[in-house]
Design goal:
alpha+beta; two-stranded antiparallel sheet; 7 helices; 37% helix
Length: 267
């Protein structure tokens, strides 16, 4: 066997596990370079790197508690005083390479944001939860529509807080809104894109203009969003096999595709 062929096989074997933790590590380095003044506990990303590196063959997992973002831009007038966002994420899954069939490669996923602003009178809060519907064999179809990957506004970060006053706002479980899964990279990028102004925050502007940062985000989207959106598209092509003969002959697992729209026992 030639040297080039051996190297190709080595890369193919290690590419997905190595790329995952290396991307998280490089992502952390870029945040340290540009956004360290705004983010507390970046060491949480190091714990994710170590967890992925030491995960068993073919599987990965990590849990990161309370990465804190401060000096948020809650409107277009600049930084909001005494504002912060706490992010918590727990994920586990299997390595994949976007080959056939496109299927569900995550076992667990819960990403939570808790936004706070301290006023003279009180701490005001807002919360969001992005998650994968947890179900086991034998579970019935949920009572209400339940996309397997979804977003919920509010959640127990608010409703379980005895000191939280809802005022005139109604908090309830519905609706669960379709949303693609976000790992720690996409989750933090989502926060930065929504809570730091491209025009008013020079550090964030420099980060976005970094070509290496852009590549890390692209890698994460290929890793987590490509299967999701191909799975969604498969619901509308009108075949039993869910095969994309015009897109590199990809095929999609039928159960995965249907559950993206609404989890049902019979899927």
């Amino acid at each position: 066997m030639g040297k080039n062929k051996r190297n190709q096989q080595k890369v193919a074997k290690n590419s997905h596990s190595d790329l995952l933790w290396r991307d998280i590590l490089e992502f952390k380095n870029h945040l340290s370079k540009y956004m360290a003044a705004y983010i507390i506990n970046l060491s949480g990303l190091e714990s994710a790197v170590n967890a992925v590196k030491t995960s068993s063959t073919g599987n990965w997992q990590y849990k990161v508690e309370k990465i804190i973002f401060r000096d948020l831009f809650l409107n277009n007038s600049g930084k909001s005083e005494n504002s912060s966002l706490e992010m918590t994420i727990k994920m586990s899954g299997v390595y994949h390479n976007n080959t056939t069939p496109i299927c569900d490669f995550l076992n667990e996923y819960c990403l939570e944001f808790l936004v706070k602003q301290q006023t003279e009178e009180q701490t005001i809060k807002n919360a969001y939860r992005f998650e994968r519907h947890i179900y086991t064999h034998g579970d019935d179809t949920p009572e209400f529509i339940h996309p397997v990957y979804h977003l919920q506004y509010g959640g127990d970060k608010l409703t379980n807080d005895e000191d939280f006053e809802t005022g005139d706002v109604l908090f309830c479980d519905a609706p669960r809104i379709l949303h693609p899964p976000m790992d720690i990279i996409l989750g933090i990028d989502f926060i930065l894109a929504n809570y730091y102004s491209f025009h008013l925050c020079e550090e964030y502007k420099q980060l976005l203009n970094d070509n290496h940062y852009q590549q890390i985000i692209k890698n994460a989207k290929d890793r987590f969003w490509k299967p999701y959106f191909l799975g969604l598209a498969a619901n509308f092509i009108g075949t039993n096999q869910y095969s994309f003969h015009g897109i590199n002959h990809l095929s999609v697992d039928k159960t995965f595709a249907q559950n993206l729209l609404a989890y049902k026992k019979e899927n």
